[in-house]
């Protein structure tokens, strides 16, 4: 394999001159530049990307932390993130699944501290902010699909409060007065905003909420099956359920129908995300549509701005709009 020293010897120039040509820098005559490029082509020389990155103090690698990639939402988010925005700038994207494990999240941040990556996108928060904040001095960290009141960094997501409010308001307009609420993790700021939207809608229409109408750990279809069993054992049963998750909604609907319920006559169900499953179930699922692909694209663009341009990190909350998609389940 040809080396920069060999090119310098054949062209009777210094290593520095060859390096200037390779990096398209000035102070090399036209004739000498053409001679060096000719030799480079003859020897089929490829410069070391590792060396270039070391000189530039960049790895051209960013990391994205998600709970799990087999969830349709996070799969689509990654599809948006690992797109033209990063690739056109020659960045590689590392995907880390935390499985909601605090230690794994900190391992991702340790890569930033060790200068093995240039920036991190956290798509959920497993640790308290006090443990994450010290890593800000190591490089840019952005939040995506998650919020934190104390985080002095860019946060890109969507209006969770408004999404919940319009979903519950729609159920109220359909005549429902007993509306249940599903959530995944109680400590999630995003889930707290959804809950606040739910409660505000009930309050605006002078409707009560009942603690037994809150159903936690709602992640997937299996959880939906479980939640329906919990729902039918409640003394005062809800007539509608805002699940916050299309997979959970599908599980609830399946178990309801197997149990002799009619959807939406006996139980109306609303999902969240507008995944493909909403259109292939029977009945089809009313849901909240969120711009997942755009969300992934936007957060990578924002992170690269801080890496490439050295823009100072500051708190900036960007909320993309959502839309209620009405189908048969309500």
Task: Walk me through the structure.
This protein has helices at 4-11, 15-22, 30-43, 49-56, 72-81, 84-87, 102-113, 129-132, 160-173, 189-204, 221-232, 246-258, 277-280, 292-309; strands at 61-66, 92-97, 119-122, 141-144, 154-158, 179-182, 214-215, 240-242, 268-270, 287-289, 316-320, 323-325. With 330 residues, the protein is α/β, with parallel strands linked by helices. The chain has three domains: 4-47, 434 Repressor (Amino-terminal Domain) (Orthogonal Bundle); 59-158 and 293-321, 3-Layer(aba) Sandwich (Rossmann fold), CATH 3.40.50.2300; 160-289, Rossmann fold, CATH 3.40.50.2300. The strands form three sheets. Strands 2-1-3-4-5-11 form a six-stranded parallel beta sheet, sandwiched between helices. Strands 7-6-8-9 form a four-stranded parallel beta sheet, sandwiched between helices. Strand 3 (119-122), helix 8 and strand 4 (141-144) form a beta-alpha-beta unit. Helix 5 crosses helix 14. It is elongated and about 90 Å long. 39% of the residues are buried.
């Amino acid at each position: 394999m040809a080396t920069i020293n060999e090119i310098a010897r054949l062209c009777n120039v210094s290593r520095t001159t060859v390096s200037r040509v390779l990096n398209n820098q000035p102070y090399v005559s036209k004739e000498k530049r053409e001679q060096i490029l000719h030799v480079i082509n003859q020897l089929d020389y490829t410069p070391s990307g590792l060396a270039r990155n070391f000189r530039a103090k960049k790895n051209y690698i960013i990391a994205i932390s998600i709970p799990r990639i087999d969830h349709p939402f996070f799969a689509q988010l990654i599809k948006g993130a690992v797109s033209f925005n990063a690739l056109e700038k020659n960045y590689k994207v590392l995907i880390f699944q935390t499985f909601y494990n605090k230690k794994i999240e900190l391992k991702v941040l340790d890569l930033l501290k060790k200068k093995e990556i240039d920036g991190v996108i956290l798509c959920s928060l497993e640790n308290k902010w006090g443990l994450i904040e010290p890593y800000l001095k190591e490089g840019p960290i952005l939040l995506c699909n998650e919020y934190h009141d104390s985080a002095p960094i860019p946060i890109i997501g969507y209006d969770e409060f408004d999404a919940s409010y319009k979903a519950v308001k729609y159920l109220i307009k359909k005549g429902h007065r007993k509306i249940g609420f599903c959530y995944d993790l109680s400590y999630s700021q995003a889930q707290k905003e959804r809950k606040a939207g739910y409660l505000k809608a009930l309050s605006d229409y002078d409707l009560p909420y009942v603690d037994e109408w809150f159903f936690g750990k709602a992640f997937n279809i299996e959880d939906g099956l479980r939640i329906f069993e919990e729902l039918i054992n409640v003394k005062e049963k809800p007539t509608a359920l805002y699940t916050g998750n299309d997979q959970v909604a599908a599980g609830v609907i399946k178990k309801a129908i197997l149990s002799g319920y009619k959807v939406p006559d006996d139980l109306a169900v609303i999902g969240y995300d507008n995944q493909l499953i909403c259109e292939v179930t029977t009945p089809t699922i009313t849901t909240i549509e969120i711009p997942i692909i755009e969300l992934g694209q936007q957060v990578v663009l924002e992170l690269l701005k801080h890496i490439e341009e050295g823009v100072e990190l500051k708190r900036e909350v960007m909320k993309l709009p959502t839309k209620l998609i009405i189908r048969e389940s309500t």
